[in-house]
Hints:
The chain is mainly α. It is built from 12 helices and no strands. It has helices spanning 2-33, 50-57, 59-92, 98-105, 107-110, 113-127, 133-156, 162-169, 174-202, 206-211, 219-229, 234-264.
Amino acid sequence: MKTGNGLALTVRTFTAIVLVFLIAPIVVVFPLSLSSGELLTLPTPGYSLRWYDDFFTSSKWLLATRNSFIVGIATAILATFLGTLGALGIFLGRFRGKTFLVAMLATPMVVPVVVTAIALYFAFSFVGLNNTLTGLVLAHTVLSVPYVLITVLATLQTFDRNLLKAAATLGAPPPAAFRRVLLPLIAPGVATGALFAFATSFDELVVAIFIAGPQQFTLPRQMYAGLREFLSPTIASAAVLLIICSLLLLTANEYFRTRGKTRTLPDDPAEPN
Length: 273
C-alpha cells in the first residue's frame, strides 16, 4: 500500500515539474507585456499599460490582427467544408486504398512547413496569388484540411451507417439525411476540426512569410517583423493576446469534446421508455 502511495506521489511530483517547465516561459510574457521600459528586460523597471495602448492604437498591429481573423475564419470555413466532405467520402465510399488515400491527404501534416511554403510560393506565382489574402487563405487551407479530415474521420467511427439506411427507407433524400441525421451526430467533431483549422491558420508564420505581402501581414508575421527590427514590449502584448485566444480555443474544444461524449453515451437501461 505504501509503495503505491509513493509511486503516486512520484508521478504527481514529476507531472508538476513538467507542467512548470512548460508553462513558465509562457507566464514570463505577462509581466513583460506590462513593462514600463522601452525594451524587453527582466526584471521590469515598472508596470504600465502603455504597450497595450500602443497595440490597439497602431495601424500596423490592428491591420495584422484584422488580417489574422479574416484569414483564420475564411480558412476554417473552407477547410471544414473540404475536410468534412473528404471524410464522408472516405467513410461511406467502398474502394481500395483508403489507408493510402488518408495518408496522402494528411501529407501536409508531416512534410516540413518550409517545404510546403516554397512549393506554394512557386505554384501561386504562376497564377498571381502571391501577396494576396486569397492566396494566403488557400495556402492555410492546404495546411488545415488534414486536421479537419482526421478529426471528422475519428468522429465518424462511432456513427452507425444503419441510420442512413433507415432515413433512406423512410424516403429522405441524401441531402436531407445528411442534414437531419448525420450532421447533428458528428457536429462536435466538425466543430473541433473547424477550431483546429482556425488555430492552425491564426498561429501560422512560415507560409505567411512566403505568401503574404506588406498589406497582408498577419499577427505572427508582424511579430516576426517586430523582432527583427526592434524588440518593443508591444510584441509581448500581442503574445499575451495570442495566448488568451489559444485558451479560448482550448475551452471551446473541450466543450465540443464533452458534448460529443455526451451524445455517444448509451441510454440508462433502468430508465423507463
